[in-house]
Amino acid sequence: MRLRNKPWAVKLVGEHPESVLDRPDPASKIDWSKRFTDISRPLEIEVGSGKGRFITTLAEQHPEKNFVAVELQITAAGIILRTKLEKKLDNLQILCADAANLDSFFSPHSAETIYLNFSDPWPKSRHEKRRLTYKTFLAKYQAILAPHGHLEFKTDNAGLYAYSVLSMNNFGMHFDFVSVDLHHENDEIVTRNIETEYEHKFAAKGNPIYALHADFGVK
């Protein structure tokens, strides 16, 4: 969902280049060692962070890790930034960029986890290549993830979930966890789950949340 433009968010992003990379040139590699206080910490990435409830909560809960929120909309990036500043999350960076260029912004095998939360389903067949679980995107994730790394995916869209399971299976990925009703799994999984803004809204309506965890096997 496209957010209404908020001038304060755009202004805030412009005032904090140390926290937000605003549409960097894909041809230029990003030196993440200059953007995190401790580059030795494990790296996790959320692609399509929206307003950032998931990634900011995760960064707050895990100060021992580094996180990057990848979000195309600058207004959303500003909203994430506001929370980052309020909570003083020095382990969170925001990358305002197109996910199609994801592998240009990260070194090979540098991330432990990539999160895809409530991605745009792009339901029309002619838009298949835009889905974040299409094979070209999966190849980018494979290039970025460490050999032991994995992908975590959540959606309320049954069609996108079915497509993603098939796409990942055809790509040769291994499934560690699959659920067609995440919020009614065992207590440990439900307790560990961090809801996104959309997830909270959809679940409150009684809609099932689909989820899976997968990896690319030994490289």
TrEMBL record:
Binding positions (S-adenosyl-L-methionine) = E46, E71, D98, D120
Q: Which reaction does it catalyse?
A: guanosine(46) in tRNA + S-adenosyl-L-methionine = N(7)-methylguanosine(46) in tRNA + S-adenosyl-L-homocysteine
One term of GO molecular function: tRNA (guanine(46)-N7)-methyltransferase activity
Family matches, as Pfam families: Methyltransf_4 (PF02390)
Chain segments carrying region Interaction with RNA: 126-131
Q: Which domain of life is it from?
A: Bacteria
Keyword vocabulary terms for this entry: Methyltransferase, S-adenosyl-L-methionine, Transferase, tRNA processing
EC number, UniProt record: 2.1.1.33
List the residue ranges forming a coiled coil, or say none: none
UniProt keyword annotation of Methyltransferase present? yes
What enzyme class is recorded for this protein?
transferase
Give the pathway annotation. Answer: tRNA modification; N(7)-methylguanine-tRNA biosynthesis
Q: Which CDD domains match?
A: AdoMet_MTases
Any idea which positions bind substrate? K124, D156, T196, E197, Y198, E199
| Job of this protein | Catalyzes the formation of N(7)-methylguanine at position 46 (m7G46) in tRNA.
Entry-linked PANTHER family: 3-DEOXY-D-MANNO-OCTULOSONIC-ACID TRANSFERASE/TRNA GUANINE-N 7 - -METHYLTRANSFERASE, PENTACOTRIPEPTIDE-REPEAT REGION OF PRORP DOMAIN-CONTAINING PROTEIN
Instruction: Write out the similarity annotation.
Output: Belongs to the class I-like SAM-binding methyltransferase superfamily. TrmB family.
Protein name as catalogued? tRNA (guanine-N(7)-)-methyltransferase
Species source reads: Lactobacillus panisapium
What gene does the UniProt entry assign to this protein? trmB
